[in-house]
Amino acid sequence: RPRSHTVTTTSSSFTTNLSASSSTLAYDKEFLRTLPGLLMVTEIVFGLLVWTLIAGTEYFLYPAFGWVMFVAVFYWVLTVFFLIIYMTMTYTRIPQVPWTTVGLCFNGSAFVLYLIAAIVDASSVTEELDSHNYNSWAASSFFAFMVTSCYAGNTYFSFVSWRSRTLQ
């Protein structure tokens, strides 16, 4: 007995709405002039210094530096991701996401884990380990504390923003 091969097609307005909404990509050039924007750029620059200074050494021989590398690279990538989200104003297109809460959780966790990583980094730097890598590890420790202070500042601004949002 032969089977009937009927194909039913339907059109959706989703593709029409998607193409109409994505044709105008917003760009917030003023974000980099705000203190949270400047802190975010500083986090990216100093975070890049942290992990490149460690990556240029034999860090894999010492587990403590592996932890610092993980934290530095992980939060560097996420910070670049969030900078793109804020610069392109993507957060306005996804109102279902509680962006103030996400920002607070991100910056708070980055502050705590970077503080731990900076302390681990600083306490692991000794001349006895390897004098060839000493300067790179010492510099990475300094910049890790600088990034930690930037994340602390952004945590404060995120908390103020979250607090004002929850009081409304």
TrEMBL record:
Q: Which organism is it from?
A: Heliornis fulica (sungrebe)
Q: What is its main location?
A: membrane
What name has this protein been given in UniProt?
Answer: CKLF8 protein
Q: Which UniProt keywords apply?
A: Membrane, Transmembrane, Transmembrane helix
Kindly list the residue ranges recorded as spanning the membrane: 35-54, 60-85, 97-117, 137-159
* Localization, UniProt: Membrane
| Source superkingdom | Eukaryota
Gene Ontology biological process terms from the UniProt entry:
myelination
- A single GO molecular function, which one? structural constituent of myelin sheath
**Its membrane topology, per UniProt?**
Multi-pass membrane protein
